[in-house]
Amino acid sequence: MSEKMTVDQFRKIKPHKYNAKKILVNGIKFDSKKEAQHYLKLKLLLDNGVIKNLVLQPLYTFKHNGQFIGRYKPDFEFWDVPEMKKRVVDVKGCKFGLPYAKFKSQCRLMKAFYNIEVEEV
After folding, report:
1. DSSP assignment of 8-70, as one string?
2. Is the separation of the CB atoms in 80 and 51 below 8 Å?
3. Are 91 and 32 in contact (CB under 8 A)?
4. 28-67 confidence digits (pLDDT tens)
């Protein structure tokens, strides 16, 4: 007789597809070390007044004529003080496969709906 495995048990034995490791920084859980490092860079810019209104994982919703199309949660959103411009940043570890294709599609939707170019790091 086989025993059923819980989700937590499964996650412990199955590594992340791209070897990304979740990390905790300043009490915030990030999906990868690269994302956490970028957060620390942005935090330094925030503390020095170069950027303001830093938001982690803001939610953007895409609707057209009342019809829900989808939603997108980039990693960071902030206001660039010297350029006087809202910036949206998404940290990517690899640039291939279905997740990356979905990301590129979401970038096109962001441009069409909000006139925002998503920056890829």
Report:
1. HHHHHHS--TT----EEETTEEESSHHHHHHHHHHHHHHHTTSEEEEEES--EEEEETTEEEE
2. yes
3. yes
4. 999 899 999 999 999 999 999 999 999 999 999 999 999 9
Q: Supply the Cα-derived Rg of the chain in whole angstroms.
A: 17
Confidence band (pLDDT; 50, 70, 90) for 109? Answer: very high
Q: What is the pTM of this model?
A: 0.79
Q: Alpha-carbon dihedral of residues 60, 111, 96, 41, nearest 10 degrees?
A: -70
Q: Is the pLDDT of residue 93 over 90?
A: no
Cα–Cα distances (Å) from 24 to 27, 35, 37, 106, in that order, read 6, 11, 11, 27
